[in-house]
Amino acid sequence: MSFLTPLVASVQARLDARDGIDAKDRRMTASHGLAPAEVERGSFLHREAVEAVSDTGRLEEYRDDVRRGEDAQALLGTPLPYTLGLAAVWAIEFAGALLVLRSLGVPDSHRVLPAAALTLTLIALTRLTVKLAEAPRRATPASAASEAGEPGEAAPGEARVPLARYGVAALYGLLVLAIAFVRVLGSDADDVPAVMLWSEAAIMVAVSAGPAFAAAWLERRRAPTVELARQLRTLRARVRDEERRIAKARRYLRSLDRAQVAWTQDNARGRAAYSVAHERTLASRAPADDRAE
Which whole number is the average pLDDT over 124-149? Predict the structure, then answer.
C-alpha cells in the first residue's frame, strides 16, 4: 500500500488544485490516520508496557530471592537424597515386619498387608514419640509466674502434653517389647541358649525400631529441604512470569515503533507527492488563466 501513497496523493492534489483549495493535512489524515505513537500514548496498554520496561526492580528482587534460596539449598541439599533414603528405610522396615510376622507363624500369602500395617504403626509411633520428646515447653502466664517464684496454677495444656508424651512412649515401648517377646517365646528350639534367643530378639527389635527412628530423622532433615524447594519453585515461576510480562511489553513497544516509522515514511511521501502535484497543477493553470484574460 505504501507504493500507492504518492500516486493517490498526486490525484488528490490535482483535484484540490482545480478547486482552488489546499487540503494536504486533511488528506494525509484521511489516508494514513493519526500517528500510532499519538494514538497509543494515552492507552492503558501503552502505559503498562512503559512501566513494565522501565521498572524492573521487582524482577531483580525475585532474582535476588532465587539466588539466596539457591545458596541455602547448597547448604541444606535437595529433597531427592532424603526421599531415596526414606524409600530405602521404609523397605527395610517392611522387611523387618515380615520377619516378625514369620516368627508369629503367619502364612506367606497373608503377610503383606499385616506387615504394611505394622510398618506404618511403628513409623507413626516413632515419629510421634520423637515429636513429643522434643516438643518445647509452651510459655504460659502460669509457667512464667512459677519460674519467677510466684505461685500459679498450671494451664490444662501443660498437664496434657507430658501425659500424652509418656503415654505414647509407653505404648511404643510395649510394642517394641512385644516384638522381642514374639521372638523369644515363639522359638520352638529347646536346645538354644536363652542368651542366643535374647540376642536374636534384640536384633529383631533393632531391625524393627532402628529404621523407624532413621525414617523420623530423615523426615526431619527432609522437611526444610522440601519447603525450600517449594519456595524456589514459586520464586522461579514468579521470575518467569515477570520476564514474560517484560518481554511482551518490549514486543509491543517494538511493534509500535515499527508502525510509527512506517507511518512517518508513508506520510512524508504522501505529503511530498501532494505538494508537488498541487504546485504543478497551480503552475499549469496560471498561463491558461492569463490567456483567458
Answer: 60
